[in-house]
Design goal:
Layout lengths: L1 H32 L1 E2 L2 E2 L4 H31 L8 H32 L11 H13 L4 H15 L1 H19 L4 H22 L3 H6 L1 H19 L6 H14 L10 H4 L1 H5 L2
Antiparallel strand pairs: 1-2
Helix pairs in contact: 1-2, 1-3, 1-4, 2-3, 2-9, 2-10, 3-4, 3-5, 3-9, 5-9, 6-7, 6-9, 7-9, 9-10
The structure holds flavin-adenine dinucleotide (FAD).
Amino acid sequence: MIEALNLSRVANAVASMGIMRRAYTEAKAYANNRKAFGKQLTDFPMVRETLSTMGAIQEIGLSTMFMVIKLMDKVMGGKQRASFKEQILFRLYVAIMKKETAEQAIHFAHDAIEMHGGNGYIEDFVTPRLLRDAQVLTVWEGTANILGLEVIRLISKYQAEELFINDMTKRLQTAKKESPLDEKIIHFVKQGIDQLKTEINQWKVLNPDLQTYYSKRLSDKMTRILTSVIAVEETVTHEERQVAVAEVFFHHSWNDKGINDQPAPLKHFSKIVEY
Ligand SMILES: Cc1cc2nc3c(=O)[nH]c(=O)nc-3n(C[C@H](O)[C@H](O)[C@H](O)COP(=O)(O)OP(=O)(O)OC[C@H]3O[C@@H](n4cnc5c(N)ncnc54)[C@H](O)[C@@H]3O)c2cc1C
């Protein structure tokens, strides 16, 4: 049953990525063609932020899913035998990424509707259908709560958190050596891993009912760490655009943002969106 579910959850995540990509493409096309208050929508900084951020999130999400699919090939009947650690990590990645991509598909459909203004709400445009289709992806193949339970089952039964933390720490250290990203940016992930360790230790002494209460929080923290490690890994080629994508992704996921005169989504708009 778990095997069948993991396969269909991967398919669900790929479908979610498809909706994210379509929503991004529709939002971009509309913003490029619509004028309001005498300007092109893409001239407004807030519109630029939305599009840059959508671009970065969907690219990092896609790279993460390809990593999971590669692991799936190994775990499910590939020629190579998957280790026990790989089997557990696969189950963990499927659970957290199914939740993340399905929820992102809804956010993306919402952002695409908003980009279209009133037109986004009416059926002459594809956007209402994107939102409707996205909404089922969070429900079938396991709701967020059920996926949260899978995460804590993997922790309780197989110490999946140790495998995850070791894997993430190692991959981050390796990628960091080659990555041109600012040390301060990468430090956010290191801090995130330390915080996860602390929280899981506190969580372990809770009663089982209360443990379930925190399952989605743990899942979301793991997702943020996993996708961020992938974002850093993607920059080791030093390709300018990948660095821009990672900086916008980190700006969205970790920075408290503050106020400055060159926020990443505006700085990298052309590299990401007009590519
Ligand atoms: C369009 C559509 C097509 C479908 N097609 C198929 C199909 O082809 N084959 C198939 O087998 N199924 C199919 N399903 C069923 C789908 O997989 C289930 O609807 C889904 O898994 C949710 O289960 P449920 O409806 O029984 O909700 P419930 O289990 O009743 O859940 C209701 C709510 O309670 C929460 N909840 C339930 N248990 C817990 C718990 N232990 N802890 C915390 N919260 C909990 C859930 O998260 C959810 O929010 C389909 C569903 C839809 C909408």
